[in-house]
Design a protein that fits this description.
By secondary structure, this protein is an alpha+beta fold. The chain has 16 helices and 50 strands. The N and C termini lie far apart (107 Å).
Length: 902
């Protein structure tokens, strides 16, 4: 079946409207800036370089000096063009430097009208940046297709004043004279002789049709001359078109189209001279029903192998493009049609084979919504169809190849899809979306922009054992350059490629550099080497002071703890000293004290050495004077008795020759002593004696409750199990009548262990813990919110009398107790601390809990809770302890607190 043009409709151009001019008020992105350094002495080139480096970091773009202007300013170059906002950031960064007089963009100047002056350019909505357009003017900031060739395989071409300047020699590939209408077969004249046909000429029932001048229309979309004051402008107005005639009356044969593809791409076609202008893009706006033939596929594969993008219209049958050839072939870029509002055109084919869409128009009810382009007789017509969509994309591909000739067809397709905009109303599939020429060309321009190398730097101490860290500097364009590095020793490459380099002994005396290699697609690699470090200095070992372990008496064994030396391994030598003089032969890890050492102090000298490092020697602190063997004594333990009654609590100090026993900083005589609270006894040697290894300190906490309570086997409370946490402590409360719990309806007792304890009940607990002392409460309550007839009034009044609780002072000066409020763990600590007489404890850890800091309300009281082992808090996930001070305390935990009270 012959191929036919993929055009849906056309209409003659109406009277021309005035050309819409653009003032171009938006600043054009620039990649150059002008700065003026202050004229004063002392500004060095290094200062200027630092200023540029800081500005470079502000946006992540490379900034280099391009030249000096005639009036003395410096012209700077950035690694990519910056828009207005980015330019403002860079200018601010430059101007902030104290050495800078001013900074400003090197603005790009253009004629007042950004749009070309072509008479009908205001009708070319496919060029606009809005919804349905391709943002063509933005693409022209990068390229207009200079140097690119697009082959248009179509109905040929006619002479047109708005097109002739961009037409190269083509060829007539029609092999059947009747179709060609020029009296012969193939020839070097691609002139469009017309393709009009009568009714039934192209098959039974086929309608009559006039000449379409289809090839001239598609060629104009691609490359109509811009800025000549007439007609229209092509999408790539500086690209050239090679017209190849493969459609005539009733269409054209696939064999002619396939040969046209081969010839357009620079291949050999029998009987046809070689194409002197091979194309980088081929536009094919034609098709027919059927599966892709081997003939087509071979031709397209050949073109692809030559680096040529074959752009094919999807067709206008409103069907899946998989049913239409050659759009269903591989190695092609298939283009569907979109409308002025950015949606899929109603007639356009669709499906997974569609790669992108481009303006094809929709002239239903309004011809101006079609695509205007060149036509016969130097005229212009509107047309609609995917035939119009494909040349828009072929022209964008031409501009992309113009910008970066090294692009491949695969890369062109990927970039067109990646930068396309979404298309609405296309449930069947419109590929990547609507082609955005401006975005696609910006993407290619970034690839094409020359690599701007950064300046690698090295930081860190250049000494053996030190770590050097490299920075590659700022390479541009940002996001397009990948860097890798290699460290050098005296300009000879090493095997180290990380961002850090640990200096070893082999580096001593050498200089270190780092070579950074930048890699950017389509460009040769660039390598830059940093400035060298200072010659690598000798390293310094990290050492710990040695320590002597053991007791200094004749016959006693002293052991050397040499400490940690780094970096390992370090060769160590040990030497024992007697009153500072070396002991002959004493170079081992241990030394047994002899009679010669009697009355002398022993020290330890440890010397370390390692290649590349400065040798070091350290001497330990001296031992005490070595004593005779009979002066080495062992302390006997202290005996503690925690009696049932506090008045019987005692501790016994043994009588041992050569040893003093110390309590609270004072020596305690041997014998029996009364005890209360926590008692710590420490054994210390008397002058002329030493303590042998063993226990030297003993601690006991004496409780008011006496020895540990043995709870009953049967719980006193129905709701407390004997296996439950804090059962012993709750049973102890019941045994001491500190808490009797509640009597339930069945006459059983409950304790309600997991209920927070209120402040009124807490007062009762503390009163009873203190032995329920005789106390007559005042006739007037000390607290405004506690009635004298209220439960536990006496106990709450007693707390106030004992200054265990002062309550809160309200705005009217009165005090409140808030009896029914649960008591928090921090306030509970304060109550218990005051109940114990507010003791002051030396050397107490003031920060035992991570969530309690000194200065916090009740922080000392909570630290006291830890010191007295009343509360150890909780172990957090990181191993630290927490107290949870603002958490209300439950009745079971309260029983434990009271049980542990001293």
């Amino acid at each position: 079946m012959p191929a036919i043009p993929a055009v849906a409709d056309d209409a003659q151009l109406p009277g021309a409207a005035p050309l819409a001019m653009s003032a171009g008020s938006e600043p054009i992105p620039t990649d150059q800036f002008i700065v003026k350094f202050k004229e004063r002495a002392g500004i060095q080139s290094l200062d200027r370089q630092s200023a540029l480096g800081r500005a470079s970091n502000a946006l992540g773009v490379a900034v280099t000096v391009l030249r000096t202007s005639a009036t003395g300013q410096e012209v700077l170059k950035t690694s990519r063009r910056l828009d207005a906002d980015e330019s403002a950031v860079l200018v601010a960064a430059l101007a902030s430097d104290p050495n800078m007089e001013y900074a400003e963009p090197d603005a790009i100047m253009r004629p007042f009208a950004v749009a070309p002056d072509d008479k009908f350019y205001n009708l070319q909505w496919p060029h606009i940046p809005q919804t349905g357009g391709m943002n063509v003017l933005k693409a022209w900031d990068v390229s207009q297709g200079e140097g690119s060739v697009v082959a248009v395989i179509d109905s040929g071409i006619i002479s047109h004043s708005d097109l002739n300047a961009n037409i190269l020699p083509g060829y007539d590939m029609l092999s059947f004279p009747a179709m060609a209408k020029d009296g012969d077969g193939r020839d070097p004249n691609p002139r469009d002789e017309g393709d009009a046909n009568s009714y039934g000429q192209c098959g039974a029932g086929t309608p009559a049709a006039g000449d379409s001048w289809h090839g001239t229309h598609t060629a104009g979309i691609i490359s109509a001359v811009a800025g000549n004051g007439i007609g229209v402008a092509g999408v790539a107005p500086k690209a050239k078109v090679v017209p190849i005639r493969a459609l005539g009356v009733c269409g054209g044969y696939s064999s002619d189209v396939a040969d046209a593809v081969i010839w357009a791409a620079g291949g050999a076609v029998p009987g046809v001279p070689t194409n002197a202008n091979p194309a980088r893009a081929i536009n094919i706006s034609l098709g027919g029903r059927g599966q892709c033939t081997s003939l087509y596929q071979d031709a397209f594969d050949f073109a692809r192998s030559k680096g040529v993008s074959v752009v094919i219209s999807a067709g206008n049958e409103r069907i899946n493009v998989s049913e239409v050839q050659p759009a269903n072939c591989k190695s092609v870029l298939v283009v569907g049609a979109s409308t002025r509002n950015g949606s899929k055109a109603w007639y356009s084919n669709f499906g997974v084979n569609v790669d992108v869409v481009a303006p094809g128009g929709d002239m239903f009810g309004q011809a101006l919504n079609g695509v205007v382009s060149t036509q016969h007789s130097n005229d212009y017509f509107f047309k609609q169809g995917t035939s119009m969509s494909a040349p828009h994309v072929a022209a964008v591909a031409a501009m992309m190849y113009s910008t970066l000739p090294a692009l491949t067809p695969d890369e062109v397709e990927q970039k067109l899809k990646a930068t396309a905009r979404p298309v609405s109303d296309c449930p069947g599939g419109c590929g990547g979306g609507l082609v955005d020429a401006g975005a696609a060309l910006d993407n290619v321009a970034a690839d094409a922009a020359p690599m701007v190398p950064g300046t690698p730097t090295i930081s860190g101490e250049a000494a053996v054992g030190g770590t050097l860290t490299m920075s590659p500097g700022t390479w541009g364009p940002a996001g397009y350059v990948v860097t890798e590095q290699r460290w050098n020793r005296n300009d000879v490459a090493t095997n180290f490629t990380g961002t850090q380099y640990v200096l070893g002994p082999e580096d001593l005396g050498t200089t270190i550099t780092v070579t950074v290699t930048g890699k950017k697609a389509k460009q040769p690699n660039v390598s830059v080497t940093s400035a060298p470090t200072q010659p690598v200095a000798i390293g310094k070992l990290t050492v710990d002071e040695p320590v002597i372990e053991g007791t200094p008496y004749v016959g006693g064994v002293l052991t050397a703890d040499t400490g940690a030396w780094a970096p390992a391994p370090v060769e160590l030598a040990v030497e024992w000293l007697r009153d500072g003089a070396p002991i002959q032969g004493a170079t081992g890890q241990t030394h047994t004290a002899t009679e010669s050492d009697l009355g002398k102090a022993i020290t330890l000298r440890v010397s370390g050495s390692k290649p590349g490092y400065q040798p070091q020697s350290l001497v330990s602190k001296p031992t005490g004077l070595v004593v005779a063997a009979d002066k080495a004594v062992t302390p006997e333990p202290v005996v503690f008795t925690d009696a049932p009654y506090t008045e019987d609590d005692t501790y016994v100090i043994p009588d041992v020759v050569g040893i003093n026993y110390v309590v609270d900083g004072g020596t305690v005589a041997s014998g029996n002593h009364p005890a209360t609270g926590r008692v710590t006894v420490t054994a210390v040697a008397k002058d002329g004696y030493v303590l042998l290894p063993g226990a030297t300190a003993w601690t006991e906490r004496f409780s008011a409750k006496g020895p540990d309570f043995v709870p009953p086997t049967e719980s006193p409370f129905k709701d407390v199990l004997t296996t439950q946490q804090f059962y012993r402590e709750m049973a102890w409360l019941a045994d001491k009548r500190i808490s009797t719990g509640w009597v339930e309806a069945d006459k059983t007792l409950t304790y309600r262990p997991l209920t927070p304890i209120n402040r009124d009940a807490m007062a009762a607990f503390l009163y009873r813990l203190s032995g329920s002392p005789a106390y007559t409460p005042p006739a007037n309550s000390p607290f405004k919110d506690v009635l004298t007839t209220q439960q536990f009034y006496k106990e709450m009044a007693w707390l106030a009398d004992q200054k265990i609780s002062s309550g809160w002072t309200e705005s009217d000066g009165s005090r409140t107790y808030r009896p029914l409020t649960p008591i928090n763990r921090d306030a509970m600590a304060a109550f218990l601390y005051r109940l114990s007489g507010s003791p002051q404890i030396d050397n107490m850890d003031l920060m035992p809990f991570k969530d309690v800091v000194p200065g916090q309300q009740f922080s000392y009281e909570m630290a006291w809770m830890s010191e007295m082992e009343i509360s150890s808090g909780w172990i957090d996930t990181d191993g630290s302890r927490v107290y949870k001070p603002i958490t209300p305390i439950n009745r079971d935990a309260m029983a434990a607190f009271l049980y542990r009270m001293p």
